[in-house]
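Hi R.,

Here's the chain you asked about this morning:
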Amino acid sequence: MQSPWQTNCRAGAQVVLTTFSSYMSEKAVKPIAHLAKKTRYSLWATGISYAALFVLFLYWNFTRTSGINWVVLAAQSLPLLLLLPGLAKKYYRSYSWLCFLLLIYFVMAVDGIFMSTRNWSDAVFVGLTVTTFISAMLAARWLQRSQKGTPNV
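And the predicted structure, written out as tokens:
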């Protein structure tokens, strides 16, 4: 047998769930103007800046005075390469994960730009991480919107 308090809590929770689900089903989603074009441009910008990050990593490792350190190159590139299959298939979640991963690279880039041994490539690294983050964030949002079938203008 349930106490009156348990009955009231269950009834209240049911009212909240019903109200929330009816709100979500009735909520109109505004269409995004030129969604396909914006998605294409953001995917293009993400791909270029993503590839430029790899070129920068290769530049750093091939211009070292001590020679190529394959372990460092793998540590720099492997996290980004793990997302490559999802990015190629245009999964919006892969683009969202790329944004999370780029936050680590951004911290490393900002740390490098404030070092006394900074170089022009450190500033390029900051710019590439910011560019990749913004374009991947937009791509994730617009891919999600276009895959859910919302109308576009």
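The chain is about 80% helix and 0% strand.

Let me know if you need anything else.
M.
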